[in-house]
């Protein structure tokens, strides 16, 4: 990534996080040149990029300013601390989302689906075709329980970008990140154990806890900095927590990148109380800034972090290829893998390995990160325009999910029902909570290339929300 793009992303992040407010004067070209050790032309290119994205406005002889009319919706509120661990509910709502089949008549704003239409994925589909035509038919045989070594070697190289140094022999290929999370949970916990989770939290991880008979303790989470370390420390002192499960980079659903010093501090807490950390990094490579955020695993020196990820969000979910770096729990994780799905399908492993080895992954990532960042800005603008006044919106630093918070007494379950028959589906906020909190919230996907159909879908959601709020006021 070029110097001016890096600088533009840094300034853009500061603007979006409120460091520079609407109407503020931005640093001069000369000041930025000295501060970052780059040329004046590099700074000018960065400002032109910010200007193109609507984040900076030049004024003759005065410099650059944040547009005064730029509407910045408030961030979602931080949830209240949980009183006690709870058994996970919300399966019916999760099942409703999971059952939704792709249809040209429905705009799927609720599913965690990346854009799979990019031409940069063509080498992957070509690799799948080549492997299927080989006379020795390698894709039709059982693989070993660890997964294909050629893919594990490529994943180990990929992890270096996140500061994570893992030997290929310490990696396991899984059937998606969902299996990686389930294996991790079963490797460190027993039925009845307590797991601390960020809140709101990925519904798939919580449903894995539910299915395995465990309880969740929801820890309040800041929409910019992540899980509250003070609340987590208090919970660790009060309850016999066996593991901490969280998504610290490009979080789903809030979109934040947990600062590096807070990741290190969380690991220190885990060491102090001798608990495992289950880190979901499935969106980490989709961070808009470069270099991408470090993993908690990258600071791990005693093997207590189980790092889970997959290619479902970066390439395509239908491949069902993920991985886990289980640290000290490798033997236990291998057994859990053996009794769940056994080996992972061979053909997609070989195709992804070819795709990575040929150097196609990073160009694809650059394209998707740029597309998703632009789509985020458009989607945020549409929500600001079409949703009721006072709506709070997350500011994702990566990935393709937007978390939206309406008035406290709003019910997104009623909103979802009201949208039935209008060709739109959302993800209701309550599925991101073990106890059914966040009923006044929803999550929307902005991965697809923006179209008038998607804008109309967002308008329908906002209009339906406004009607429900108006009815509640009249009642």
From TrEMBL:
<protein>
    <submittedName>
        <fullName>PLP-dependent aminotransferase family protein</fullName>
    </submittedName>
</protein>
<dbReference type="Pfam" id="PF00392">
    <property type="entry name" value="GntR"/>
</dbReference>
<keyword id="KW-0804">Transcription</keyword>
<comment type="similarity">
    <text>In the C-terminal section; belongs to the class-I pyridoxal-phosphate-dependent aminotransferase family.</text>
</comment>
<keyword id="KW-0805">Transcription regulation</keyword>
<dbReference type="InterPro" id="IPR004839">
    <property type="entry name" value="Aminotransferase_I/II_large"/>
</dbReference>
<feature type="domain" description="HTH gntR-type">
    <location>
        <begin position="1"/>
        <end position="69"/>
    </location>
</feature>
<keyword id="KW-0238">DNA-binding</keyword>
<dbReference type="InterPro" id="IPR036388">
    <property type="entry name" value="WH-like_DNA-bd_sf"/>
</dbReference>
<dbReference type="GO" id="GO:0008483">
    <property type="term" value="F:transaminase activity"/>
</dbReference>
<dbReference type="InterPro" id="IPR015422">
    <property type="entry name" value="PyrdxlP-dep_Trfase_small"/>
</dbReference>
<dbReference type="Pfam" id="PF00155">
    <property type="entry name" value="Aminotran_1_2"/>
</dbReference>
<dbReference type="InterPro" id="IPR000524">
    <property type="entry name" value="Tscrpt_reg_HTH_GntR"/>
</dbReference>
<dbReference type="InterPro" id="IPR015424">
    <property type="entry name" value="PyrdxlP-dep_Trfase"/>
</dbReference>
<keyword id="KW-0808">Transferase</keyword>
<keyword id="KW-0663">Pyridoxal phosphate</keyword>
<dbReference type="InterPro" id="IPR036390">
    <property type="entry name" value="WH_DNA-bd_sf"/>
</dbReference>
<dbReference type="InterPro" id="IPR015421">
    <property type="entry name" value="PyrdxlP-dep_Trfase_major"/>
</dbReference>
<dbReference type="InterPro" id="IPR051446">
    <property type="entry name" value="HTH_trans_reg/aminotransferase"/>
</dbReference>
<keyword id="KW-0032">Aminotransferase</keyword>
């Amino acid at each position: 990534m070029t110097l001016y793009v890096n600088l533009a992303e840094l300034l853009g992040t500061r603007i979006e996080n409120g460091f520079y407010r609407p109407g503020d004067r931005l640093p001069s070209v000369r000041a930025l040149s000295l501060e970052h050790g780059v040329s004046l032309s590099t700074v000018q290119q960065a400002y032109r990029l910010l200007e193109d994205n609507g984040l900076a406005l030049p004024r003759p002889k005065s410099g650059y300013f944040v547009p005064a009319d730029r509407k910045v919706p408030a961030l979602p509120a931080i949830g209240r601390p949980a009183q006690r661990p709870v058994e996970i509910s919300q399966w019916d709502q999760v099942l409703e989302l999971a059952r939704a089949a792709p249809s040209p008549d429905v705009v799927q704003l609720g599913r965690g689906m990346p854009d799979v239409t990019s031409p940069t994925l063509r080498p992957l589909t070509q690799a799948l075709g080549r492997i299927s035509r080989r006379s020795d038919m390698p894709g039709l045989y059982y693989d070993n329980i660890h997964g294909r070594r050629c893919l594990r070697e490529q994943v180990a190289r990929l992890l270096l970008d996140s500061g994570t140094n893992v030997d290929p022999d310490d990696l396991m290929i899984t059937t998606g990140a969902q299996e990686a999370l389930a294996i991790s949970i079963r490797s460190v916990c027993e039925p009845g154990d307590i797991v601390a989770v960020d809140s709101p939290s990925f519904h798939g991880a919580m449903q894995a806890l539910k299915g395995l008979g465990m309880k969740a303790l929801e820890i309040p989470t800041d929409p910019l900095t992540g899980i509250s370390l003070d609340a987590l420390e208090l919970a660790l002192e009060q309850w016999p927590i066996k593991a901490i499960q969280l998504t610290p980079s490009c979080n789903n659903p809030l979109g934040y990148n947990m600062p590096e010093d807070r990741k290190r501090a969380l690991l220190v807490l885990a060491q102090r109380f001798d608990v495992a950390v289950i880190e979901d990094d499935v969106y980490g490579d989709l961070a808009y800034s470069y270099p991408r955020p470090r993993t908690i695993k990258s600071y791990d020196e005693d093997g207590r972090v189980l790092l889970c990820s997959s290619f479902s969000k970066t390439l395509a979910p239908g491949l069902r290829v993920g991985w886990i770096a289980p640290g000290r729990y490798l033997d236990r994780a291998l057994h859990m893998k053996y009794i769940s799905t056994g080996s992972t399908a061979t053909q997609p492993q070989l195709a992804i390995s070819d795709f990575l080895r040929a150097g196609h992954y990073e160009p694809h990532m650059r394209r998707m990160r740029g597309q998703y960042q632009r789509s985020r800005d458009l989607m945020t603008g549409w929500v600001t325009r079409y949703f009721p006044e006072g709506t709070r919106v997350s500011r994702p630093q990566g990935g393709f999910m937007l978390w939206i918070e309406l008035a406290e007494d709003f019910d997104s379950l009623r909103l979802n029902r009201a949208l039935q028959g209008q060709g739109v589906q959302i993800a209701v906020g309550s599925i991101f909570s073990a106890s059914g909190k966040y009923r006044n919230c929803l999550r929307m996907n902005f991965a697809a290339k923006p179209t008038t159909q998607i804008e109309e879908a967002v308008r329908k959601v906002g209009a339906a929300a406004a009607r429900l709020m108006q009815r509640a006021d009249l009642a």
